Amino acid sequence: MSKKEKASGTAGIIIKGLLTDRGVKIPKNQNVEELSSKGYGVTEKDEFLLTFYEALYLFDKGLLEVKDEKGKKIEFQRLLQQYEKIEENAWVRYLTYRDLRSRGYVVREGFGLGVDFRVYERGDYGKDTAKYLVLSVQEGKPIALEDLTRIMTQSQSLKKELILTVMNRRGEIVYYSVSQLTLK
What we know:
This protein is of the alpha+beta class. Helices cover about 30% and strands about 25% of the residues. The chain has two domains: about 80 residues, tRNA intron endonuclease, N-terminal domain (MutS, DNA mismatch repair protein, domain I, 3-Layer(aba) Sandwich); about 90 residues, Trna Endonuclease, Chain: A, domain 1 (3-Layer(aba) Sandwich), CATH 3.40.1350.
């Protein structure tokens, strides 16, 4: 088993998918149960769909082949460009996702609080709820303090730790824990 296969947890599988405007659709005749058990994709209306960042990650690992509706193979750059059409922060989100996955975490879509991801402790996926909520930003691009405060308050109400990931100018991801400071 190669290092890439160990890191992704999908040893030896080459998944074939179809590019859509919402992500990459994987036909049911492939091993979608294994992907799902590893924290990839969602089943919607009898379809298994990988988000763009999941597809980019698996593509980069050499585990996913993507074709368009005409059957032509899609390259990484085109997949990224498709993602950028729906997400202005696409590159930062992908790099954050890739970094967290490479560290062994299961990373799932955020759930509408303004957070990008829910992150599960290593080995906890499917056993417990996510421990962390992640908000990704790019160095030099401001975020309103009111937005950060709202997201932090919502995270605390859900008993989740808010993590702010910042992509610096060199493309490295730096992690910051965000919490409320109360002075007496």
